[in-house]
Design goal:
35% of the residues lie in helices and 16% in strands. The chain is an alpha/beta fold. The longest helix has 17 residues, at 160-176. The mean pLDDT is 92.
Length: 306
């Protein structure tokens, strides 16, 4: 992975540790009191850095099973990305968002809290995505700009109805508060030899998008987060909800990823990106260069930002 200049000094990182020990109340206070901004600017687009993988134990990137395990490195990469004015904010769990807020990195940026992270990566119950991070009440009371839910569906899994019910309930609660509900609908299938995997078919994703769009008592504040598959026009046509594209682990295929994003952003309701590993842990580019490329696609000029 490409190197980059240190954005969070040892002193700053130590100050976060000391705050947790001596003044823990500063962490949620920093998040709640940060300078706010509108959800979208004049261009109606959004670029978020996804940093919620660690909250369900997903630390692997490429062949390195512990690539995202070092918190100082993760914060450093996030702060480096947030230094670009075209980055609108961060999607993360409470620990990540509070630490970034304490470092002053979320002033004037969006903070979207991840919610149902109980499906620990690699566990037997991995698709049982229970509410283990933020709940809707705290998304609202802490002044976060949105809440993200994961909706993974495998047709033979008896736990799926509980996930659907949870996501619908959270979507309703956020809509009642006028806060963005970001839903990530993902179709899964059982491998012939056992185990589960993401279903790559467009038809399966279209079905999930249609289901996610109909969850809750109002869809007025529903946004969707989906993979950048080949024919995104067909997928996006299944909804009028705004869509953000995730990035996944780009590896050395970063040019293909950027090209796919560029094409997809021409579709009217695809309104931006929410990549994590592709920008924070690029294999070839530096973090700064990867974020710069994504920022140029989503926000051609920083002047369009609030």
């Amino acid at each position: 992975m490409a190197d980059h200049e240190r954005a969070v000094s040892d002193k700053d990182f130590q100050s976060v540790i000391e705050a947790r020990v001596r003044e823990p109340g500063r962490l949620p206070q920093a998040l709640a009191s940060r300078r706010r901004r509108p959800l979208v600017g004049e261009d109606g687009r959004m670029l978020l850095l996804a940093a919620d993988h660690t909250s369900r134990g997903k630390l692997a990137i490429g062949s390195d099973s512990m690539a995202a395990a070092d918190r100082h490195s993760l914060l450093d990469r996030l702060v480096t990305g947030l230094a670009d004015p075209r980055v609108d904010g961060v999607l993360g769990s409470a620990d990540v968002l509070e630490e970034l807020a304490l470092l002053g990195a979320l002033d004037g940026r969006l903070a979207v809290g991840t919610m149902n992270r109980g499906g620990i990566a690699g566990a037997l119950w991995e698709l049982d995505d229970r509410l283990t991070a933020y709940d809707a009440e705290h998304i609202v009371s802490l002044g976060l700009d949105g809440g993200k839910t994961l909706m993974r569906v495998e047709p033979t899994d008896p736990g799926v109805p509980r996930t659907l019910e949870t996501v619908a309930r959270l979507t309703t609660a956020l809509a009642d508060a006028g806060v963005m509900a970001l839903i990530e609908p993902l179709p899964y299938r059982t491998r012939p030899g056992g185990g589960l995997e993401l279903d790559p078919s467009e038809d399966a994703l279209i079905r999930m998008v249609a289901i996610a769009s109909g969850l809750g008592s109002s869809s007025a504040h529903t946004w969707l987060k989906i993979p950048a598959i080949v024919d995104l026009a067909r997928v996006a046509a299944a909804t009028t909800c705004p869509v953000l594209l995730l990035g996944g682990d780009a590896g050395r295929e970063h040019e293909q990823v950027f090209d796919a994003w560029e094409r997809a952003l021409q579709i009217p309701n695809i309104r931006g990106l929410v990549p994590g590993r592709a920008l924070l842990y690029p294999e070839v580019l530096s973090v700064r260069d990867a974020v710069d490329r994504a920022g140029a696609l989503v926000h051609p000029t920083a002047a369009t930002l609030p």
